[in-house]
Amino acid sequence: MSDKDFEARHLETLDRDLGRFSNLERAAAYTGRPLVGPGIALVFIVLVGLAASLFLGQGNNALIVTVAAGFGAYMALNIGANDVANNMGPAVGANALTMGGAIAIAAIFESAGALIAGGDVVSTISKGIIAPAGLADSTVFIWAMMAALLSSALWVNLATWIGAPVSTTHSVVGGVMGAGIAAAGLGAVSWGTMGAIAASWVISPALGGLCAAGFLWFIKARIIYRDDKIAAARVWVPVLVGIMAGAFAAYLALKGLKHLISVTLGLALLIGLVLGVATWLTMIPVIRRQSRGLENRNKSLKVLFGIPLVVSAALLSFAHGANDVANAVGPLAAIVAASQTGSFTEAVSIPFWVMLIGAFGISFGLFLFGPKLIRMVGSQITKLNPMRAYCVALSAAITVIVASWLGLPVSSTHIAVGAVFGVGFFREWDSERRLRRAHIAIPDSPRVGPEERRRRKLVRRSHVLTIVAAWIVTVPAAAILSAVLFTGIRILAM
């Protein structure tokens, strides 16, 4: 064999070996990809626990504070993975935002809402669900809150895994109830409060769905079904954007900025009215400029709703960060206060570092695990375009204001997803109505059979059933899990 042949064979063997190594590296990267997110999340939880132990874990309760901080970080990650999808899903599903843009906007505005306008005071027993007198001492209270925090986080994690957007606040409520029952019996529970929370399972999605369907009907009747769609849009899109601005101004004044200023419902509505009218007048020339040269078809209308939809998603995220994060990290604040002072019967302030855990945890959870639920809410329940997604966002703000005025307990998660249901079912009804009209106008036209009608359903029933079932079992599932965890913690601590 010549030297050239030997060298060629050697190089060929080397290429094959390098190819095997390359395939091995690709296979390792592919199999390891699902572990990247959980790995980063675990590092975040460990770092939060270490930071808490270094800066706050002084005295006999150092271990409790460290473990509780880790549980709080885990809960915040799950809020980002699950709850934020309700705000960003419609905008992504309507292609008004990319997934990366949605995650960036949500991370910024959720964090800003939590840190700037987060709730300053929460009840140590989470809104009066458990009577403080029923708990023996601060140690039992700390165990109960730790069980509630961990159980609610585990439940939201499971819901995210199966693809069901659930209320994190309801998860915390269920966790507190279950731990309280395990610690002090059924008599310790305020069943009136729990009845109001159970009522919100029906009230929230029903109000959100009806409001969103009403706005979609208005847009179809006044803009989409008009002969000159662009002329109609020039009249009504500024009005709708003004309604959105007024609704969000009232929403943020009433719910999101309570930490900074005290606002009554009447003042919030007045603020919303002033800003709504100002926005309406401002948008009239803006929409006229945007609509120049647009063709008279539905696709052109999407351009006019794109920017208002992105702004509404950002404002929803800010309000969510301000209003809901405190409910989720409230048990952590209660644990820290009880471990440091020994008191657990008074309302406690949420420390800034606890809100930091909530803000950063939401951002990490959204970035690592959020896309799955964003896709579910935005595109897998029903098909959304900018007009339909705009109706979802607008109804979420208005429904909260109406519910506050009526004194009804509602869940922002249930409202947003209920609004998506409302849009989808309205589209089905409207499609059937137009089909019947076509048959009346043309009696000899071919009829659509039952199988074809089922195929044309615009809302995926499997997702609806999964989500509704998850809503129904959230409080009892979190309660049972919390009771088991509390019993285990008490046995280990004795």
UniProtKB/TrEMBL annotation:
| Cellular component, GO, one term | membrane
Tell me which Gene Ontology terms the entry assigns under biological process.
phosphate ion transmembrane transport
Single GO term (MF): phosphate transmembrane transporter activity
Give the UniProt subcellular location, in the record's own words. Membrane
| Keywords attached to this entry | Membrane, Phosphate transport, Transmembrane, Transmembrane helix, Transport
Which Pfam families does the UniProt record give? PHO4
Q: Does the keyword Transmembrane helix apply?
A: yes
Q: How does it sit in the membrane?
A: Multi-pass membrane protein
Determine the domain of life of the protein's source. Answer: Bacteria
Write down the PANTHER family for this protein, in alphabetical order: PHOSPHATE TRANSPORTER
UniProt lists the family membership as follows: Belongs to the inorganic phosphate transporter (PiT) (TC 2.A.20) family.
Kindly provide the name given to this protein in its UniProt entry. Answer: Phosphate transporter
Q: Which organism is it from?
A: Paracoccus methylarcula
